[in-house]
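forwarding from the other thread:

> can someone predict this with S-adenosylmethionine?

sure thing
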Amino acid sequence: MSFRDIQTQDDVETYKKRLIDNYADRPIIIDHITEQIQQLGLEIPTVVELCTGPGQLAEALCHSLPQVNYIGLDFIQPFLDFTEERLSAEATFVCADLTGSDWPELLENAANNRPIDVIVSMQSLHDVGDAAQISAIYRRCQTLLGPVGCFINADLITQEGDEANARPGRLTVPHHLELLQAAGYLSTTCSLRTAQFAVCIGSNR
Ligand SMILES: C[S@@+](CC[C@H](N)C(=O)[O-])C[C@H]1O[C@@H](n2cnc3c(N)ncnc32)[C@H](O)[C@@H]1O
């Protein structure tokens, strides 16, 4: 089942189970992202998640960061409804397409004039589009983030040397870091690599 076929809450449950069953590294990635945000030491962090899907990361963030001001974006409304029902903390949701042009403004409105501290995405940007599309998202997020903000992208990657067999949105780690640098982040790093995933971070400080 593709996310584009999701209509009901049962569909979301099925999709969530498939993600959990097929990608064993996800718990490691979720813990790592949570730790990265905790280490920023922000009292009331405003965190935007791009492509929330069934909300596993959202649940972990709201559990581990009780004061978080969480804003989730996805273009499939049933994912947003499913996630909202499961969150203990108050959260804001934006239904928008990342290939469109209105999502940065919708996120700014959702943040209600508070600076956005972290923008995070897990296992998703490769689904949104190719390197040009990911680059455009990195750039828009760099300006959306506050002066000390950072973008944390945990995604499925292509190993270096295997580029010839790569699907369009699955980039190598050096390619992600290059795009983050070109987008204007002051510092960039790959903070974790597993067999399937890499976590690439661009920071404005
Ligand atoms: C593989 S799922 C991952 C969901 C979630 N991040 C997780 O790891 O459980 C990919 C997600 O990206 C979202 N997505 C894909 N293309 C999108 C777009 N153009 N705009 C907004 N969301 C999109 C899908 O709706 C889906 O929720």
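The CA atoms of residues 169 and 204 lie 24 Å apart. thats all i got for now
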